[in-house]
Amino acid sequence: MFIQLALLCLTWTISARPLFTDVPQLVLSKSAPRPLVIWHGLGDTALSEGISSFIEDIKTAHPGIFIYSVQIPLNGTLDEERKAGFYGKAEEQAKEGCDQINSVKELSDGFDGMGFSQGGLFLRSYAQYCDGPPLRNLITFGTPHYGISSLIPCPTPPSLTCLLAARAARAGIYTSWAQSHLVQAQYYRDPARLEEFLDTNSYLRDLNAEGYRLASEGEPGGIQDGGKGLRGIENLVAVLFDADRTVSPAQSAHFATYSPENKTLIIPLEQQRLYTEDWIGLRALDERGGFVREHCPGEHMDLGTGDCGMRMVEKYVGGQNGLASV
Ligand SMILES: *[C@@H]1O[C@H](CO)[C@@H](O)[C@H](O)[C@H]1NC(C)=O
Ligand SMILES: *[C@@H]1O[C@H](CO)[C@@H](O)[C@H](O)[C@H]1NC(C)=O
């Protein structure tokens, strides 16, 4: 049974690093490791303390790696960046990230992507819709791939931005205003209100090709059909936080959702039509071994417990272009 503890002290930005005392020594290879793009999560900024120290750790593990952290809006103030996590049109923010990545010459031969929470959805947008250098390994941490069915609670103490966004969302999550101005609303998928979701949502619905496949309308391969889907990437590594009480359901990180009939029953990916009918190429990816379901032991975005963040970095980041590597 999944219990939402709203009063728990929650953080969903990544926490400043615990001490990594024994970063393993890696054998240096001749060519530089593949670059990495990071897309941060809700409430965080591109170069916050937590992200910056994580970047330093990645550079220690993979010497010479180039890392780009997506900043929305580009050159914005910290306050504008934090606000953009809550307010804005998801498709437009995704497009902005696509343009940024295209403008960075170090990324032009391809890169790996690491998305934190909702940042993982934006990197999926890149993979599915953006005309740019190839995204090879996509690693998502606690990303609600099949949506959230309740709002992500504000941290303690809450920011005013978070409280106002939550109040606006509660006033009507499936209004056209919320669906074009509140980021969380654009991946809010309430299984008990599926028709409203399919009628008013576009961002998550299209990313999962859900409206198109149910209605069988539109142009195959178009935006509503999830674009290229996951057919262009080499590996999707989806990390679920086992003690996640922030995203509901936490298993959305592995493309699971609650049953429309029973809100405590989780429908696993293998029983979703998204998978059985392979709407976005996820099943094909899985069948060739390119879909890896990983776990971290902690709460949402706790990368420190069990050294989980660095464990993923060592396994899935720093390969070389031209060599398929998990
Ligand atoms: C952002 O800042 C960089 C470096 O200061 C500058 O080169 C670039 O033109 C700026 N871009 C925008 C859109 O403001
Ligand atoms: C809902 O699912 C749970 C399992 O998660 C089960 O124990 C319970 O009996 C179900 N309730 C109904 C009404 O089917």
UniProtKB/TrEMBL annotation:
One of its GO terms (molecular function) is palmitoyl-(protein) hydrolase activity. Keywords: Disulfide bond, Glycoprotein, Hydrolase, Signal. Its EC number is 3.1.2.22. Residues 1-16 form the signal peptide. Gene3D superfamilies: alpha/beta hydrolase (3.40.50.1820). Transmembrane segments: none annotated. Pfam families: Palm_thioest. InterPro entries: AB_hydrolase_fold, Palm_thioest. The keyword Phosphoprotein does not apply. Belongs to the palmitoyl-protein thioesterase family. This is Palmitoyl-protein thioesterase 1. It comes from Naematelia encephala.
